[in-house]
Amino acid sequence: MTLELLLPPLRIIKFPKAWLRPVVLALSVAATVVPASATSLAVRDLVQLTNQASYVVSGECVTVQKGTDQRGLPHTVYVFRVEEYLKGAGHGSFLTIRQVGWPAQPPSAAGRQRILRIPGMPEYTPGRRYLLFLRGASKWGYSSPIGFAQGVFTIRGEGPGMSVVNALDNRNLATERGVSRRAAPLVQGPVSYRKVADIVRETTRGRSLTQREIVLRLRGGAK
Length: 223
Prior knowledge:
Shape: globular
Helix content: 10-25%
Largest sheet: 7 strands, antiparallel
Structural class: alpha+beta
């Protein structure tokens, strides 16, 4: 006998009856870590990502480990080798992030997905470098990026030419309120890591940047 759970986007995830308690726990924990709007179409621009994040940090994912806590709740622990903190106080050269659920796995032979996974929860690959906008850990020790994929950027290249891009192709970084969702994005494609870092630092210090200023900087029209 299995428990069927319908989660957004609309898809049924089946669990053995014995997983009833862990699944209920997962949903309660996720509710404390993930805001209701995280899996919706709510857009967070660069200023909003920065203001809502407790930590903004860049680094390389070095290990991924699946496990369960003392309550039987599945989780994934990612360890990053830190390159720099743009916001928040760092604690050493490594950062550990604990997320609810396990990475995506292929269905079983019976075609049933028996692994708990929060829809939209980002996953990280060892050896890749990321820029992360993170919430502070919940009372359970779990965290997640702001806006899920909106707050996770893959770092490309090295030195002055280093760039970042997220799963939305950076279309969320600068927005115009009241503009149709189909309007051409103000920013799109990889942008300079250093320019993003400068904007994050200035926003953290309390400077109020307009969307026009952000667009000019990210497009290369201002230093």
